[in-house]
Write a structure and sequence with these properties.
2 helices, 113 residues, six-stranded antiparallel sheet, elongated, 51% strand, alpha+beta
Length: 113
C-alpha cells in the first residue's frame, strides 16, 4: 500500500511540474502558476525576475498540497539561472535550493486498540 501511494505521489508531481502558465508584469518580472496541478488541488507556481538584461534569472518556486486532512506538503525554494543566448531565451544552466515540509498526523495502531 505504501509503495502505491509513493508511486502515485511521484507520478502526480512529475506530471504537474512542467506545465506553467506565465504572465509578465513588466519587462523583467513574471509570475507563473501550474494549471494542470489545480485538477489535483496542488497549488504550485513561481515568481521570477530577469537581471543583467536577460542574461540571468532569479526565481522563487512554491508548492502546496493537502491530499487529506492528515497530510500537508509545503515547498519553497529559490534558483538562479544563467542563459547562454541572453534575453532569457535558449539553453540555461544554474542552481537552486528548495525546502520541503511534510506534516502528517499519524496515529499508531497500538493506540487505536
Amino acid at each position: 500500500m505504501k509503495k502505491i501511494l509513493v508511486v502515485s505521489l511521484m507520478l502526480v508531481l512529475v506530471a504537474t511540474s512542467g506545465a506553467f502558465a506565465q504572465k509578465k508584469f513588466s519587462e523583467n518580472n513574471y509570475a507563473g502558476i501550474n494549471p494542470l496541478g489545480l485538477l489535483f488541488k496542488i497549488y504550485s507556481g513561481e515568481y521570477g525576475r530577469f537581471i543583467n538584461n536577460g542574461a540571468a534569472e532569479i526565481n522563487v518556486p512554491f508548492f502546496y498540497w493537502a491530499p487529506t486532512t492528515d497530510l500537508t506538503i509545503l515547498g519553497l525554494g529559490g534558483s538562479y539561472r544563467m542563459y547562454k543566448d541572453g534575453n532569457g531565451e535558449g539553453i540555461f544552466y544554474g542552481g537552486g535550493l528548495q525546502f520541503l515540509s511534510i506534516s502528517w498526523n499519524y496515529t499508531s495502531a497500538e493506540k487505536i486498540t
